Amino acid sequence: MAFKEIGRRFPAIDLALVPIAPARGGNKNHADPKEALQIFADVGARYMIPIHFEAYHSTAVPLDEPRKRLGEEVERMGLEDRVFALRTGERRMLPDGEGASPWVTHEKAPEPRKAAAR
User: Fold this and answer.
1) What DSSP letter does each residue of 13-79 carry, written as one string?
2) 1, 56, 70, 106: which has the highest count of C-beta atoms within 10 A?
3) pTM across the whole model
């Protein structure tokens, strides 16, 4: 109910950054992929980027499970053009005008600096 209230109070949200934890639902502290998509719908945002779902490992859930389950739900709901599960180094660029589609850029991370010899 709180997320619907956010959508009501702040209409026309462009982007929802929704945290997804390696959880399988029913956890009061973490959203699983299906719950995250419900949060996205409740706030009424135009686009969603899930965050932190591959930030740490869980002994209960394989590392790739949240991304896989999210992809399945996104496809089932027809949200492929609105939900973007980015990988490290990717950026989703939102369009400047109406009718334009978002796009992804791939950035190569800089090489780490070597420590100076002492």
Assistant:
1) --EEEEE--S--S--TT---HHHHHHHHHHHT-SEEEEESTTSS--SSS-TTHHHHHHHHHHHHHT-
2) 70
3) 0.77
